[in-house]
């Protein structure tokens, strides 16, 4: 009963957080804690369930704990190989492969600790699992809430649609990933314009990289205009180099022309929640929506997005991880 009460408290905190501002990582943590305590409450009362339910839950749990990590690691490695073949060997494209290999390494270390009965290996494995459990909990919170955030409807009109840039192919051509953002941005623009009142302005946001022949925002605007989008409805923001700069520079343009305006920000769906957190920090009054992305791109991209969010709160997160490591060292010292 106590677990259900705690779950209800965290669920209320989650609902209040969403109503106050959808763009908070705390909402994800509250939701994760609510689900966790709900699960604990259900498991605590499993003895009162109909015959066979407890046995079934136990079997499923053992299968998940025993085979789940192996299957997940294998899938991550397979996806990582596909990612490298399609996108190249940039560090960001190796994340799924590295995560899968890391899981296999930890499983091998756990087996070695069990076979050798080494106290040192046992403490190392136990400490690593503690840190991994904490990081995995946050990762599941991130993925779960990012999924929900990406499906929240645009709940009001907006004065601007801001499409975030990405790299150009050959230094001048819009790649498929960026084209999907622009197509989605156009859909949002047309939806808002159809509501009546003043039509919004679409801002293409992206500066010029060292290997690009023109600013990303110019190539993005050309892409839209060539496909029939009204040229007078496009505003180019061509000074930004990062997502945070995209937000700040776009905000400057909006405040210059329409002080106090609101916007809808468009990026790829795997990037939407982190972009929303960045928009909140930049003081931008805007919801973020995502455009479709190829399925093979998701694992590495999601890991990259989570790492970036994890490090945004590095004082808290690294402090907790360090505390868990110190507990492992203490356990080794007093063994």
Write structural notes for this entry.
With 335 residues, this protein is of the alpha/beta class. Among the domains are: 1-48; 160-293, HUPs (Rossmann fold, 3-Layer(aba) Sandwich), CATH 3.40.50. The chain contains 11 helices and 5 strands. The chain has a 5-stranded parallel beta sheet. α3 packs across α4, α4 packs antiparallel against α5 and α5 (119-149) packs antiparallel against α11 (314-333). Pfam families: DUF218.
* Shape summary: globular
Please give the count of helices.
11
CATH architecture descriptor text of one domain: 3-Layer(aba) Sandwich
Proportion of beta-strand residues = 5-15%
Task: Report the strand count.
Answer: 5
Order of helices and strands: HHHHHEHEHEHEHEHH
Look at the structure and give the mean pLDDT: 90
Task: Give the proportion of residues in helices.
Answer: 55-70%
Biggest sheet layout: 5 strands, parallel
First-last Cα distance? 36 Å
Class per helix and strand makeup: alpha/beta
Keywords: Membrane, Transmembrane, Transmembrane helix
Protein name: DUF218 domain-containing protein
InterPro entries: Cell_Envelope_Assoc, DUF218, Rossmann-like_a/b/a_fold
Pfam family, one: DUF218
What is the gist of this entry?
The chain crosses the membrane at residues 57-81, 93-115, 121-148, 315-334. Keywords: Membrane, Transmembrane, Transmembrane helix. The chain is an alpha/beta fold.
């Amino acid at each position: 009963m106590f677990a259900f009460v705690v779950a209800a408290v965290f669920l209320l905190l989650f609902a209040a957080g969403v109503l106050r501002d959808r763009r908070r990582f705390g909402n994800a943590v509250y939701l994760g804690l609510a689900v966790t305590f709900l699960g604990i409450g259900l498991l605590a009362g499993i003895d009162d369930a109909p015959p066979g339910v407890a046995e079934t839950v136990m079997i499923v749990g053992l299968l998940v704990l025993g085979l789940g990590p192996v299957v997940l690691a294998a899938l991550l490695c397979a996806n990582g190989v596909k990612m490298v073949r399609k996108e190249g060997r940039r560090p960001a494209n190796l994340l799924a492969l590295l995560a899968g290999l890391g899981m296999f390494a930890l499983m091998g270390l756990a087996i070695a600790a069990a076979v050798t009965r080494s106290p040192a290996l046992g403490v190392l494995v136990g400490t690593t699992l503690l840190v991994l459990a904490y990081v995995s909990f946050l990762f599941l919170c991130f993925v779960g809430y990012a999924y929900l955030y990406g499906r929240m409807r645009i709940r009001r009109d907006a004065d601007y649609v801001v499409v975030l840039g990405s790299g150009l192919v050959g230094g001048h051509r819009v790649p498929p990933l960026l084209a999907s953002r622009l197509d989605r941005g156009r859909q949002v623009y047309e939806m808002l314009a159809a509501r009546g009142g003043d039509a919004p302005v679409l801002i293409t946001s992206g500066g010029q990289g060292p290997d690009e022949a023109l600013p990303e925002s110019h190539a993005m605007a050309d892409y839209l205009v060539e496909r029939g989008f009204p040229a007078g409805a496009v505003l180019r923001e061509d000074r930004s180099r990062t997502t945070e700069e995209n937000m700040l520079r776009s905000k400057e343009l909006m405040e210059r022309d329409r002080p106090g305006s609101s916007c809808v920000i468009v990026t790829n769906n795997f990037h939407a929640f982190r972009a929303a957190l960045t928009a909140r920090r930049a003081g931008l009054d805007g919801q973020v929506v995502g455009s479709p992305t190829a399925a093979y791109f998701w694992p590495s991209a999601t890991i990259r997005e989570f790492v970036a969010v994890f490090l945004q709160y590095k004082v808290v997160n690294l402090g907790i991880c360090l505390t868990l490591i110190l507990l492992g060292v203490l356990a080794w010292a007093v063994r």
